[in-house]
Amino acid sequence: MSWTKNTWKRITPLYEKILAMPFNQELMQGTLPLEKFKFYMAQDAYYLGEFGKALSTLSGRMEKMAHVLEFAHFAAGAIEVERALHESYFKTLGIPDTIEPSPSCLLYTNFLLKEAKYADLATAVAAVLPCFWIYKKVGDHIFEQQSSVENNPYKNWIDTYSGEAFAESVQKAISITDELAEQSSPSANEAMFKAFEMASKLEWMFWDSAYRLEKWPV
Ligand SMILES: Cc1ncc(CO)c(N)n1
After folding, report:
1. Hey, whose CA ends up nearest to atom 5 of ligand 1?
2. What CA–CA distance (Å, rounded) separates 110 from 165?
């Protein structure tokens, strides 16, 4: 079984917890309070900027030119979405341009940047994979449940992550990860799993922190 297939099997209970989160359930129903969505959007713009930098770092670490190029495309994609958020949601929702990251957002982005720079290459790639794959799965799931919901105010968000363009990137990220996993030892494959699991937990925390409108304790 491929590394990604096995990993998804192991991560399924956590993925199911993510689907059941009130943030995602209410987003799916269109009942998520706007204040929580705005908080999420602002934090996600910060996240995407840092995610883009992590992908850029990974691009430069790749050995195969095809992979250098793919990761450069992923990085550009993340920054373009970040820019688009400022032009669309930020303006319509009145979100200020400068964003202070919440504790969970800073924890997640700093984890990704640290892995991208210092971890073994295959592990570093495994650390960024949940950002692609979990969003794709969550986006698809929410999209499939949409038939019963009319005029969902969060339709734009849902369309982005259930769309074809994002699906293509996710597929590429999965196949690059499997390629690197095949060239790695069993113990390196387990280190990859640990990084994937950590990033998946941080995805859960990111949604949870938005739902709680997380503040710094001091
Ligand atoms: C927190 C988070 N993870 C993943 C994505 C998708 O790239 C996103 N926009 N935000």
Report:
1. 131
2. 27
